[in-house]
């Protein structure tokens, strides 16, 4: 069984080390801080053998060089990561990546950046989604367009509902405030928001999350719901998503 070590990194990132005890391989999922990843891996007795990047932003690929220099790890990433780091294997939608006997399918989740990908390990029930979707939120649309981003969210929505989503930032408390503004009559969301407040009051993480809960409460994933379209307008779900994303940017 795969082991996942999650730890805080930088100001609000989470770092993830994915370890296969059978093969001894370890993947660093994104690299906000190379030194911290090396420290965490050493404490676990693991050696990083691979780096899986979701997108090119420095708080996701900026630690690649330090890790590669220390371990010789191979970098697997979308083409856009070559803006800031060397890539050993470029991957895109539909490709497969392995860690020991475990396989991850690469999913195009572009919108936050134009080359953003996620890694879905179906047999293990997990997905590493970077900044494409958060607990009760989604990434800012820095490079993409609303229809593109909505198509990406639909690919995430199509995963098995029990999938555990490992997103990259502790943004949930702020996301919950906007979600309640966007979808004020959602009882499940109100209960979720209370749990988040309690967790953060104890400095507990709200990541990972589970897709089934996000499908019920995340306003961006609900842009195709009739009540959300009635409240926010839009000729189609991509239009509704665009209105929600713009409102969140100004919230």
From TrEMBL:
Assigned EC number: 3.1.2.6
Cofactor dependency: Zn(2+)
Pathways per UniProt: Secondary metabolite metabolism; methylglyoxal degradation; (R)-lactate from methylglyoxal: step 2/2
Enzyme class, first EC level, given as a word: hydrolase
Residues at which Zn(2+) 2 binds: 59-60, 131, 169
Reactions catalysed according to its record: an S-(2-hydroxyacyl)glutathione + H2O = a 2-hydroxy carboxylate + glutathione + H(+)
Cited Pfam families: HAGH_C, Lactamase_B
Family: Belongs to the metallo-beta-lactamase superfamily. Glyoxalase II family.
Protein purpose: Thiolesterase that catalyzes the hydrolysis of S-D-lactoyl-glutathione to form glutathione and D-lactic acid.
Subunit relationships: Monomer.
Name used for this protein in its record: Hydroxyacylglutathione hydrolase
Species this chain originates from: Alteriqipengyuania lutimaris
Source lineage: Bacteria, Pseudomonadati, Pseudomonadota, Alphaproteobacteria, Sphingomonadales
């Amino acid at each position: 069984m795969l082991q996942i070590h999650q730890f805080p990194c930088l100001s609000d990132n989470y770092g993830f080390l994915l370890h296969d005890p059978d093969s001894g391989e370890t993947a660093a999922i994104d690299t906000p801080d190379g030194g911290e990843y090396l420290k965490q891996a050493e404490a676990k007795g693991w050696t990083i053998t691979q780096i899986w990047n979701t997108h090119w932003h420095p708080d996701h690929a900026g630690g690649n060089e330090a890790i590669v220099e220390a371990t010789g790890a191979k970098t697997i990433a979308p083409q856009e990561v070559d803006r800031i780091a060397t890539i050993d294997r470029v991957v895109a939608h539909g490709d497969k990546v392995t860690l020991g006997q475990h396989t991850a399918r690469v999913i195009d989740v572009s919108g936050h950046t134009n080359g953003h990908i996620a890694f879905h390990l179906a047999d293990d029930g997990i997905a590493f989604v970077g900044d494409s979707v958060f607990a009760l939120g989604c990434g800012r649309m820095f490079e993409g367009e609303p229809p593109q981003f909505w198509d990406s969210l639909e690919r995430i929505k199509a995963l098995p509902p029990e999938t555990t989503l490992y997103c990259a930032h502790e943004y949930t408390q702020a996301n919950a405030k906007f979600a309640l503004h966007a979808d004020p009559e959602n009882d499940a969301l109100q209960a979720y928001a209370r749990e988040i407040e309690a967790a953060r009051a104890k400095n507990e993480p709200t990541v990972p999350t589970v897709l089934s809960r996000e499908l019920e409460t995340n306003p961006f994933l609900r842009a195709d719901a009739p009540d959300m379209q009635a409240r926010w307008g839009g000729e189609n779900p991509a239009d509704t998503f665009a209105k929600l994303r713009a409102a969140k940017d100004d919230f």
